[in-house]
Specification:
Length: about 375
C-alpha cells in the first residue's frame, strides 16, 4: 500500500504586523464612501475589532506607498521554499505542484506556472485550484490521491490568501460601497502556507510520522445562495459597449459578504463537515487532541464552541482560536497554524490533528486528517 506523509511545512506573513489602530492608515481612508458607510466605519468598526479578538494582522502592502509588495506567486514562493527546505528537498524534486487561491496574478498563464518558474523547477506536473477557504482541503486531496495511486512520488501544495488586493481604498469605487464591504477590512488578512508531501511504502500497520490519514471535500451549496461574492469577470462582461467601465461604475468588483448567513450557518456546517469527514475515515472524534479550523473572529468562535464540544464530545481546549496575532487568513490559516504547531512542538508524535474549513462563497466544506 502506498501511504502519504507530510515531510515539510512552511508559512509566510507579509511585512510587519499591522495593529488595529493602523488599519485605515495601511489600507487607505474611505473618505469618498457614502455617509452611511462612513458613519458605520466610525461607530461599528471599533466594535468589530473589539469582538474580533485580533490584535494584529499582515498585509502585502507597503504602508508608506500603499503599493502591493507581493503577487500571488511571490507570496506562495515564500512559504513553498520554507516547506521544501523543511522537507530536506530541493525544488527540482517536486513532481506535482498544486497552487490554490481565490486570486490569480493574470488571466493567463496560470499562476501555478509562475510559481513553478520562481522556484526554478524546469519540469513538473502543475495544477491550480480557484477557491477560497476550502482550497487547502481540495489541493491536499488532489495531491494525496495522486501520490496514493503512484502517479507521483512528491507533491508541493501551496495556498495564498491575498485579501488586501480587494481591501485597499484605491480598489473601491467608494461611492458604490456598502457597509458589509467596508466591514471586511476589519476581518481579512494576507498569508500563504505550504506543505510538502511524499509517498512511502508501508503495510498500513506500522506508525509513519506525519501521515495523512485521509481527506474530505464536498460542496453543500447546491440549494443555497452565495455567502461571499466578488464580480468583475465573464458574467459581468456580457454587455456590449464599455463593460469594464460599467463594472467599476456599479461596484461589481467589490468583495461582499452575507454576514447574516455566515453567523447563522458557518458553525453548524463546519460541524457537519467535520463529523462526515471523521465518519468516512473511521476516526473517533474523542481520539483527536487538535482541531484546527479557519474561524474568522473570536466572537464566531465563542458562539460556536459549545456546539463543537457537544457534537464531537471533546474538551473545549482541543479547539483553539489561533488568529489573534496573524489575523484571519482564510484557507491559509490551516497551513499557517499547522506550521506553527509543528515548529513549536505543540504537535506530539502519534497525535491526530484535524484541519477543516467551510467556505461561504457557495458553501463548501473540505479538510484532512494527519497523524503526527
Amino acid at each position: 500500500m502506498i501511504r502519504v506523509r507530510i515531510t515539510g511545512t512552511g508559512s509566510f506573513l507579509p511585512n510587519d504586523p499591522v495593529p488595529n489602530d493602523r488599519l485605515e492608515e495601511v489600507l487607505g481612508p474611505l473618505n469618498d464612501a457614502p455617509p452611511r458607510v462612513r458613519k458605520f466605519i466610525d461607530m461599528v468598526g471599533p466594535q468589530i475589532l473589539a469582538r474580533g479578538g485580533i490584535d494584529s494582522r499582515h498585509f502585502a502592502i507597503d504602508p508608506k506607498t500603499h503599493r502591493l509588495t507581493h503577487t500571488v506567486a511571490t507570496m506562495a514562493e515564500e512559504s513553498a521554499r520554507r516547506a521544501i527546505t523543511d522537507a530536506g528537498k530541493t525544488p527540482a524534486e517536486v513532481d506535482l505542484l498544486v497552487l490554490s487561491s481565490p486570486n490569480y496574478d493574470q488571466m493567463t498563464p496560470p499562476t501555478s506556472t509562475i510559481l513553478q518558474e520562481l522556484l526554478g523547477i524546469e519540469s513538473c506536473a502543475e495544477m491550480e485550484i480557484h477557491s477560497n477557504c476550502t482550497g487547502v482541503g481540495k489541493s491536499v486531496q488532489v495531491a494525496y490521491d495522486a501520490l496514493r495511486t503512484g502517479r507521483y512520488q512528491t507533491a508541493l501544495v501551496s495556498y495564498v490568501q491575498f485579501s488586501s488586493v480587494n481591501l485597499r481604498s484605491c480598489y473601491f469605487n467608494q461611492k458604490q460601497m456598502t457597509k458589509t464591504q467596508a466591514a471586511l477590512r476589519y476581518i481579512l488578512a494576507d498569508a500563504s502556507g505550504s506543505v510538502f508531501l511524499e509517498a512511502i511504502e508501508g503495510d498500513g500497520r506500522e506508525y509513519v510520522p506525519h501521515e495523512v490519514m485521509g481527506t474530505f471535500v464536498e460542496s453543500i451549496g447546491g440549494k443555497r445562495q452565495p455567502g461571499m461574492t466578488a464580480g468583475g469577470s465573464v458574467a459581468d462582461l456580457t454587455e456590449d459597449g464599455d463593460p469594464i467601465t460599467s463594472i467599476y461604475g456599479r461596484g461589481k468588483h467589490h468583495l461582499s459578504q452575507d454576514f447574516t448567513a455566515v453567523n447563522r450557518d458557518a458553525g453548524p456546517l463546519l460541524c457537519d463537515g467535520v463529523e462526515r469527514m471523521l465518519s468516512s475515515l473511521d476516526v473517533d472524534p474523542k481520539t483527536v487532541p487538535h482541531y484546527v479550523y479557519s474561524i474568522p473572529t473570536k466572537q464566531l468562535y465563542e458562539e460556536n464552541i459549545d456546539r463543537f464540544v457537544e457534537r464531537l464530545g471533546i474538551a473545549p481546549e482541543r479547539i483553539k482560536f489561533r488568529a489573534q496575532r496573524t489575523g484571519y487568513c482564510g484557507g491559509a490559516s490551516l497551513l499557517l497554524h499547522l506550521d506553527e504547531m509543528a515548529r513549536s512542538g505543540e504537535l506530539q508524535p502519534g497525535q491526530l490533528v484535524v484541519l477543516h474549513s467551510v467556505e461561504s462563497s457557495k458553501w463548501m466544506s473540505a479538510g484532512f486528517v494527519v497523524r503526527w
